[in-house]
Design a protein that fits this description.
The protein is an alpha/beta fold. The protein is built from five helices and five strands; from the N terminus they run βααββαβαβα. Helix 1 packs across helix 2, helix 1 crosses helix 5 and helix 3 packs parallel to helix 4.
């Protein structure tokens, strides 16, 4: 694997949702995938559109592993990463599904890095802290979309 991009953050910081949004952004560029609708009214409407697209293409929208081929490059996205068994399963996923670029979430726990760092060259992305209790759902979605967009730009730069 050329690059493993880690989304590093505590629980409930939007790591998995950001990776799901990234998957939805990349799906239209991969082979045999229909593009999601272009017009939406709100950020929440956008997420509903993304979620419907993921359900149509991936079927399991809770957590998943997927490999997309874009311009001859394989991009693997693994959305589990909150526990040590999840990290080990992610390593297994990438070993069974060789990719040029891999993305997965992890905690800033040293044990997670002890598993991943010896195996891969890493780029680490640190997500913002969990939104305050008085933050709106829409604000959290905006933060997730912002992270997904940054990841999309990074992935596209490697393709």
């Amino acid at each position: 694997m050329e690059k493993l991009i880690l989304l590093c953050g505590q629980c409930d910081t939007g790591k998995t949702i950001s990776l799901k949004m990234l998957t939805a952004l990349l799906l239209p560029s991969s082979d045999d995938v229909t593009k999601p609708p272009k017009q939406t009214r709100t950020v929440i409407d956008l997420w509903k559109e993304i979620d419907r697209e993921l359900k149509a293409q991936v079927h399991d929208t809770q957590n998943f592993g997927i490999v997309l081929k874009i311009n001859g490059k394989k991009i693997g996205i693994y959305t589990y990463g909150d526990s040590i068994p999840d990290i080990n399963d992610g390593v297994d996923f990438f070993e069974k599904n060789p990719c040029d670029i891999g993305l997965m979430p992890c905690h800033p726990d040293k044990k997670h890095f002890d598993i991943l760092v010896p195996k891969y060259a890493n780029i680490m992305m640190v997500l913002p802290k969990k939104a305050q209790k008085n933050s709106s759902i829409e604000r959290q979605y905006l933060e997730n979309i912002s992270m997904a967009t940054k990841l999309h730009q990074i992935v596209i730069s490697f393709i």
